[in-house]
Amino acid sequence: MYRFNHVNLTVNDVPGCTDLFERCFAFKVTERLGNGKFSVLEGEDGFILILMHGKDGVHTTYPPLFHVGFLVADQESVRATYQRIKIAGYEPPVPAILERGGEPRSASIM
């Protein structure tokens, strides 16, 4: 069996993205290196997220539909997380119910 261990994302603002995941999604920083250019964060379920600044100095972009998603218990959890993101000073899109061929199981945060 394979279990997803980690994802390494290249971002333009490692400290800012680290703050977002800490304050809004309950990740804990386990390591910071390189003067704000590298962070290792651990989610409540043990998932590891690595944020790093690109080595070549080129502005990082992702395809238009790229996103991250979280499973949550209910719609109230989505609303609470949405409010935490807004209070933290970010401008998240309004959450939408996910319907993938069946009954909605959760909602999208980002």
Overview of the structural elements:
This protein is of the alpha+beta class. It has 2 domains: 1-54, Signal recognition particle alu RNA binding heterodimer, srp9/1 (2-Layer Sandwich); 66-110. The chain is built from 2 helices and 6 strands. α1 (14-25) packs across α2 (75-87). The longest helix is centred in the C-terminal third of the chain and has 13 residues, at 75-87. The two termini are 29 Å apart. The mean pLDDT is 85.
Assign the CATH architecture of the largest domain: 2-Layer Sandwich
Tally of DSSP β-strands: 6
Strand percentage: 15-25%
Task: Work out the helicity level.
Answer: 10-25%
Class of secondary structure makeup = alpha+beta
**Mean of residue pLDDT?**
85
What is the gist of this entry?
The chain is of the alpha+beta class.
Write the layout of secondary structure elements.
Layout: E1 6-10, H1 14-25, E2 28-33, E3 38-42, E4 48-52, H2 75-87, E5 96-97, E6 107-108
Parallel strand pairs: 1-4
Antiparallel strand pairs: 2-3, 3-4, 5-6
Helix pairs in contact: 1-2
Comma- or semicolon-separated keywords:
2 helices, Signal recognition particle alu RNA binding heterodimer, srp9/1, alpha+beta, single chain, 4-stranded mixed sheet, two-stranded antiparallel sheet, 110 residues
